[in-house]
Amino acid sequence: MKRAGNTNRHRTGAIAALGLCLFPVPVAANGPITPAPIAGSAAYEQISGELYDDEAGRFRDFYDSLSEADKVILAEVTGRLGEGQHGTFVLMLMDMDTGLARRMLALFASFDSAQLDFVAGHMSERTYEKWQLIPELLEAEQEATVRAELLGEADLNACYADDTSNAEIADDLAPAQAAEGQICSEAVLGFRGQYWRTPYRVVRGVHADPDEAHWQAQLALHGASTKAFHSASARESQRKQFGRDLHDWEINHICGAVYIGGRFLLTAAHCIDSSRDAVFFAGRRMRLGTQRIDGNHNLLQIRTVLRHKGYDSQTHQNDIALIELKDTPGFKNLTEAKLPQSSRAGLDNGAPLLLTGWGYQRATESAGNIRAQDGEYQERAIARLLKGSVTLRPDPECNNNRNFRIRKYRLRPGQFCAGSQSGIDSCRGDSGGPLVDRSTGTLVGLVSFGPGCGLAKTPGVYVDVGYYTDWIVRAKAAAGRGRANTKYLFE
Ligand code: 4AZ
Questions:
Q1: What is the model's pTM?
Q2: Is 308 annotated as catalytic?
Q3: Residues forming a β-bridge with 31
Q4: Counting CB atoms within 10 angstroms of each CB, which of 73, 151, 267, 324 has the fewest?
Q5: How far is 264 from 260, CA to CA, in rounded Å?
Q6: Which domain holds residue 77?
Q7: 167 C-alpha to ligand 1 centroid (Å)
């Protein structure tokens, strides 16, 4: 019988530790007694059944050395693993240094049953090689850190993979947030990259440099009128959807947006919900001049919104809205994106474009599906802005693309598609955000929709901002004439 992924499991020197007693053994007057494994103990039988004879002998000694509490934990963990993995789990423990094995069991003992379901559930989807990343992390980090990483609750942005200074964006952050900018340990990076496979962002993007894309803005929920999104029942459904409790700042993320100068921004029409004006204006803010969304910094009030009257939620045509702020923003790290003069900013197919956003990061067949293609949960949003490079694609490439055709998607006037060979793509939560021609700082597109995200050879669909040049000019003029705290449809 082949055990699930148990190659390379013997590490030199590790087995020698087994001769030692791992845990206190009850001592009787006439010397140590070794209690036999609980007769009929389902876990013990199950584990032994997956071991070769020599391993089963070692396991018996190991099991005898465990405290009753540790036996319970061992049963709790292995009971949640898959067939063939029970034996592998104890082999991993037995191959470890005794102190580390004790810490492993203590770590698992610290989880409640829902957390154990989560952690063991993910382990059961992974092979022994991936499990090895857990003790490696435990050797390098405090238990609290390992807990957070295993539970998928770690703040992915509390430390960074590179050593680039975060000084520019740190200016805009509360001191507590600015102080977080540390470099991740190798163990943490290895764990995230190999166990969670989350080095890719936007979909397959990387963190934006601190000095770029300063036109990027965010439409966020804010304040008391957003309470419904934070209620116990909302949290419960978020837990079901995302597999964990979300941070408030993640819940508050709605969409991307682009600063175009003065008091104005553009976003996607589908980002503007139909809530009553009083609710909308009290509970929405624009965040500008920062690449981080995990805090209450850089939030400005909205004065009016002009949503394109021709927006069609079926075809996604005219997916554009103009946002007017109450005040002109004065942030240091703010650059306006230039508006294009013509359709597609006059660029040829193949032109490279800079995509940025805080949205979903995993490839998925449907952006409405919280589970990614690999079965993992999506992160609802990422705290620090991500970027990727895509190129402008010819229309027929998308109209003939299988993933477009099976969904009956066709490009309409005012839309274009853009993608990358390596599968860099926008996804849910990036909507309304920019595609910019880096060489000129010209806004070319707004993230709109697409067939899934990051699917092989499948571009995403963008609003052709140049197609709406006239609409934007007229909308800006009309916004000034509109009443404050009012959303308008504008043709
Ligand atoms: C969305 O749901 C979405 N891959 C945005 C962009 C893309 C797909 C979906 C493009 O907001």
A1: 0.62
A2: no
A3: 28
A4: 151
A5: 6
A6: 42-195
A7: 32
